[in-house]
Amino acid sequence: MKPVIILGIESSCDETSASVLRNREVLSNNIANQTIHENYGGVVPELASRAHQSNIVPVVNAALKEANVSLSEIDAIAYTLGPGLIGALMVGSSFAKGLAISNNIPLIEAHHMKAHVLAHFIKANGQKNPELPFLCLTVSGGHTQIVVVESPTNQRIIAETRDDAAGEAFDKTAKILGLPYPGGPLIDIYAKEGDPNKYAFPFADVGKLEFSFSGLKTAVLYFVRDNLKTNPAFIEEELPNLCASIQNNIVQTLITKLKNAVEETGIKRVAIAGGVSANSALRSALGELESIGCETFIPNFEFCTDNAAMIAVYGHYQFLDQNFGSLAAAPKARISF
């Protein structure tokens, strides 16, 4: 049987990425990051769009060259339809469509969050692929949800955040502490030197499965403000402890909800995905579920943050079902799951 070769293109936020997969095996996965946003404390949509326009041609060319695959060998082009920044999505969408038309290649529209889950089906560097069904906690800057994965093309949300996402909570509390963007990875670094139990920030009481992180952000803001009044050097002196305590709150919330989901569904295969799944404390804490008989799955680090390999593996399964997209499809900032 002829192998399925998919070119994936990802441009939902501030990473321009292209990847080539052959039967889910990664031949290339190239990512161009945008450092310009560090000057503004967050992603600036217009600047992101311009950077994608500059990056997309060289990134796709590099992915094809590294994979040693020509466009004539590509069976389909999968690209991110949404959700994401609309201008950024339009760059990837327009490029994918132009490439498909000019080379007579079928298109596949990918759902960004479902693709994060499917990162677990990528064949690369000995990554362990979960058997079905399994639970997946998808945690990123814009989303926090628990998904039941019945099959690669059948996923359903059983819980999500009511307000801020976990990644947003990391970045916004980091900003309160005066850390540069992106602050989430820096909290992870400083937390390694701190006491996670030094400061007890409140946990949101929003039910057994759902999440809420806006209260944590407010609690940190007021706590830091009040302590700075009596000690102007409070943040500087207590940064590791503050980072460790904030991280502990977020991670324990995520793990507690996951344990509850295991109890509710009876599914004992548990995975994490999305940008926050790169957090070292979350990856370590996932082991707590093994003590209650769960089998756990963590994607390789390169497949945690936004990348085109996850888009390509999404395209792989859509291709097997012959579920192709349309040139008329418009990218969407918000899209139903």
Structure description:
It is a single chain. This protein has 337 residues and is an alpha/beta fold. The protein has two domains: 5-123 and 304-320, ATPase, nucleotide binding domain (Nucleotidyltransferase, domain 5), CATH 3.30.420; 134-298, ATPase, nucleotide binding domain (Nucleotidyltransferase, domain 5), CATH 3.30.420. The protein is 40% helix and 19% strand. The chain is built from nine helices and ten strands. It has helices at 45-67, 86-103, 112-118, 166-176, 184-191, 214-230, 234-265, 280-285, 308-320; strands at residues 5-10, 15-22, 25-33, 76-82, 107-111, 134-139, 144-151, 154-160, 269-273, 295-297. α1 runs parallel beside α2. The radius of gyration is 20 Å and the shape is globular.
Give me a quick take on this structure.
By secondary structure, the chain is of the alpha/beta class. Helix content is 40%, strand content 19%.
Structural class: alpha/beta
* Sequence stretches where pLDDT stays below 50 over 5 or more residues: none
Structure annotation, total helices: 9
Going by CATH, the architecture of the largest domain would be: 2-Layer Sandwich
Q: What is the terminal-to-terminal distance?
A: 32 Å
CATH top level assignment of the largest domain: Alpha Beta
Can you give the mean pLDDT? Answer: 93
Please outline the major beta sheet: 5 strands, mixed
Number of domains: 2
- CA-based shape: globular
Count of DSSP strands? 10
Gyration radius, in Å: 20 Å
- The percentage of residues in β strands lies in 15-25%
Give the SSE string: EEEHEHEHEEEHHHHEHEH
- Helix proportion: 40-55%
Side-by-side strand order of the widest sheet? 3-2-1-4-5
CATH superfamily of the largest domain: ATPase, nucleotide binding domain
State the CATH topology of the largest domain.
Nucleotidyltransferase, domain 5
